[in-house]
Amino acid sequence: MLDQKPKVSVIIPTYNRAHLIPRAIKSVLNQTYLDIEIIIVDDSSTDNTEEIVKDFKDRRLKYIRHNINKGASAARNTGIRESRGKYIAFQDSDDEWFSNKLEKQIEAFADAPPEVGIVYSGFYRIEANRKLYLPSDQLSLKEGNIHNELLKGNFVGTPTVLMKKECFRNQRYFNESLPALEDWELWIELSKYYTFRYIKKPLLCSYSTPNSINLNENNMLKAHEIILLTHLDDFSKNKKNLSEHYYDIGTGLCSIGNFNNGKNYLIKSLKAYCLNFKTISVLFILLFGHNIYYKFRDLHRKIGHRT
């Protein structure tokens, strides 16, 4: 029976997560869909990750180690190249799948039209004592041709994805030059050729950890800049959206003290869409000095946290 089902390759990149990775591995081994292989790519950890992984005695598990640290994108790409499955799934070493995740996604693919390349789901984001369901209900379009929605921002969580391996033909892999947001960049690219299917229910928990890449503001801003430049033709089709991205980068740069580049991006934001009143407000506040800007930023964050 198992041989008649499509094999799923589950790729888990990891780096110094020996204390967390057992939970992630167990959540994959406990899947109700059994025809899987698990490829753990250790990105040159300096802790006892290898020892922890090899304690799991399961023939479906394969351990690969990078000799040098190359980053999460390179680790995922290594796993993709080593995979044998018809479908690819990604698990993060600090997250936890629900036991029926793959089963539900394989069922979704079974009656999907051929142009569907990716099936993803909702998930719970756990931050301290907060539990948030994503993606937001405010999104108007979550499946089908979601290219234009993805140009507004990423809402497809990598650990929620099950995708056809054929999506990676023509060397469409994770961009290893990006210090963050590599999943968003890949979804933007793949959404030009494939449609997405969304399962409107949580199929995993994603945990926020102190050393998460997504908490490094410098990396996020640099990646955001690179992605805008790489896909500028696509972003430029919606000037209002482009203005919002320039605004986000500009205010982010100002927040970390890089006011010169920050102002340049805010000016780009205004040039892209002259009625962006958020941009006009920030440029006006900057006329009164950096300290006033910081007070405004802190007040804005405090209000946003309360809501």
From TrEMBL:
Organism domain of life: Archaea
Ranges of residues in domain Glycosyltransferase 2-like: 9-160
Residues that span the membrane, as ranges: 275-294
Keyword annotations: Glycosyltransferase, Membrane, Transferase, Transmembrane, Transmembrane helix
Pfam families: Glycos_transf_2 (PF00535)
EC number per UniProt: 2.4.-.-
An example Gene Ontology molecular-function term: hexosyltransferase activity
Protein name: Glycosyltransferase
High-level lineage: Archaea, Methanobacteriati, Methanobacteriota, Stenosarchaea group, Methanomicrobia
